Amino acid sequence: VYNCGVGGADLLFSRIQLNESIKRYKPKYVVIEASPSSFFIPNADNNRRMLLPFYKNDTMLYNVITNREPFEEMKFFSSIYPYNSTIASLIKGFFKTKSDSSLGFLPATGTIDTAGLTRAVDNSFATALLPEQKFTYLKELIEICVVHKIRVVVASTPVYRANDNHDKMVDQLKTFCSQYTDLVYLDYSKYEHTYLQGNLFKDNSHLNHD
Fold first, then answer.
1. Cys-Cys with 166: which of 2, 120, 162, 202 at CB 3.0–4.6 Å?
2. How, if at all, do strands 206-207 and 29-33 pair?
3. How far apart are CA 183 and CA 88, in angstroms?
């Protein structure tokens, strides 16, 4: 099992990851984390810049990064430009001598602060509909798997607290996933063993190490 999750990455990021991965190998299963919060990730444009080194491989990535603006396209005449944001980490990795003792696992520690949380949840899920443009990326992820005969699982992960809008978006996901006969949808958003269990959450949408 390989976890392709990246902090702050959106569904478009995942769609590009999958598109590049299947050029090299075909996994038996793909699990897509598609919670309502996956559709409302702040600064997703900036987080996708780590994929710049692959701009020649993926037309969608190139178009998203440049936004078809001539000045942005001119930047790619420099072969160094795609690596600008990764130079520090590349140098750090070059001099690293010890292996990662956590084997890639980055535990979230601490417990959620519930002060003012109800208002924060209402602000985060202020609409009952998933954005159509970003919903398209989920469709493309699933359809890539269908075309390549890869079994696909869509999972909505636990939240500490939800509101009515959040629940309606989960219902929208369920309805959409029901169109695909071989797709498995797992709804853990209000899982009985985690919902409202403050000792298990780092923040409203992330479980902690415990």
1. 162
2. unpaired
3. 40
